[in-house]
Amino acid sequence: MKKIAVIGCGAAGMMAALAAAESGGSVTVFEKNEKPGKKIYITGKGRCNVTNACDVNEYFDNVRRNPRFLYSAVYGFDNSMVMDFFEKNGCRLKIERGDRVFPVSDHSSDIIKTLFNAVKRAGVNVQFDTPVYSVEALGGSVTGVTYSKKDEPITREEFDAVIICTGGKSYPSTGSTGDGYRFAKDMGHSIVEPRPSLVPFEVSEHWCTDLQGLSLKNVGLRMYQDKDAGAAKGGAAAQINGEAKGGKKKKPVYDGFGEMLFTHFGVSGPLVLTASCYYDRDKSAGLLLDLKPALNEEQLDKRILRDFDDAPNRIFRNSLGGLFPSKLIPVMVELSGIDPEKPVNSITREERLAFVKLIKNVPMTVTGTRSFNEAIITRGGVNVKEIDPSTMESKIVSGLYFAGEVMDVDTETGGFNLQVAWSTGHLAGESAAAK
Known about the structure:
Layout: E1 3-7, H1 11-22, E2 26-30, H2 38-42, E3 51-52, H3 56-59, E4 63-65, H4 71-76, H5 79-88, E5 93-96, E6 100-103, H6 108-121, E7 125-127, E8 132-138, E9 141-147, E10 155-158, E11 161-164, H7 179-186, E12 191-197, E13 201-203, H8 206-210, E14 215-226, E15 254-262, E16 266-268, H9 270-276, E17 284-290, H10 297-310, H11 329-336, H12 349-360, E18 362-369, E19 377-382, E20 400-402, E21 410-411, H13 416-434
Parallel strand pairs: 1-2, 1-11, 2-7, 11-20
Antiparallel strand pairs: 3-6, 4-21, 5-6, 8-9, 9-10, 12-19, 13-16, 13-18, 14-15, 14-17, 15-16, 17-18
Helix pairs in contact: 1-6, 1-13, 10-12
């Protein structure tokens, strides 16, 4: 019987341990925390977006980096299999908007409990409060790990295979502190620089701070980036208004629709988090917010004209209640450059059309992202070119496997990242036991 060590008792680690045990392996899981699934517990705002119920072929459209690497893993243990696993093990699921899958109870703890109970039933030995210090190898093959239980001396134990499921660097309070990168580098692997992803943006515009706490639904957001890192200096200008040199329209790197939130540092919310997947911090970046995506400029102009005609003597700042939330009105008045005390019947056609264009293209200049402390996932990690996609085994060290966020694979929001953990963990566990 093969003796297998799994480092990390999160989503990928528990699934890897279960698959390895069910495939005949003798499995020990090492977890430095005092309990399993600490990061699972906070996912989906505590509800745990288990996976996405989209057609499996559509799944890869939501993988931002290295989707082909995941083909074997995802097709081998896809979203329907994940859902079947939880349902058969007593955790009922439901599908919500965007095909997002959650437990019926809306408690992420039920997902952790279901998975951990399955792990224990399979005979897996789980060691909590037991950090791993190193992975050992000799002659190009794994030989074991060194670890230490609380207040005990460091122990070296031999294993036939080691599966690294330590996660990335996001939410370090859950234990994701980059240990897996160190283990991988010590084994000769290269690391694609880890960066925060699915993370809020910091912006330079002062008025974003004024709008702190305001949530906008059903808005559009486009992000533009420029190779010239200095182009953003001076605020949101040509590089973010969708114009390239010569007046040609630039193609946005991201174009989405949904909900966003203003904060004390900039912007957040589902739209912004997804946009951050496309963000390259080595380039200048700007956002264009469409406050009325359901209307084109001509339709929006007619709507504003009707409002103006209903009360022609009303001053401009008091005429926008039907267009925007009250908190947003002073900001839009300021950005428009129109005198707030000007009667609407005195506003020129040029001023009105410029205001229409502003509503469809409110500019913001991105100065960076928030830190790993606020990032849902990590972008970057162990270079997947050095991992066999059909087994998740290292191409450098025999018997060394990887699963989950520790690898350079990341996706958009919607349950897709947890599916990476389930699929790669399942493949790594089966492969480690079967080799």
